[in-house]
Sequence to fold (208 residues):
Amino acid sequence: MIPVPRIWPGATVAILAGGPSLTAGQAEDVARAGARTIAVKDAIRIAPWAGVLYGGDAKWWGHHGPSLSAYAGPRYGIEPYSPTPDPARWGVAVLRNTGQVGLETDPSGLRTGKNSGYQAVNLAVHLGAARIVLLGFDMQPDGQDRHHWFGAHPYRTADPPYRDFREMFKTIVEPLQALGIEVLNATPGSALDSFPRVALADALQAAA
Fold:
């Protein structure tokens, strides 16, 4: 498998995920600040300019792949959750699945954390991030019982196992600290407490 190239050395990388708090305004703030951006799955709809698209879900690629022809940036996924048997059909570079917990430092693989947001954090490390800013990492439904900013997935009915997700994130904290990579959670109302919660403007202040 082809390793992820270190194209953003020392950069601030914003990861836009699927939680219900994510807004187009937040994406615009990220763009204005000049932060590098990873769009996780449907976030590409409000950030079509994102530098990288990530999706660790074969069903998502199968449903949305035909509509992504205009996106020219790199696309990444993880085995076995990404497009099979022919990921090249959607232009996806599929990385090795090297386990659930911790941080994979080999740029040909990712740890799963049981969710695409976690995987995108690992991907940001491979890309060279020095600071990672999290948006749309609610890790809980909002007051209207919405799980995603865009509504429900058309192909899935089960609610996300948020408690499992939050427990998984605890295992990546020390490996990130050991590499000197700062992670800031700028998601309003997030239940994820593994990283400092900050205002988006403060998180983006030093964006490259």
Remarks:
- The radius of gyration is 15 Å.
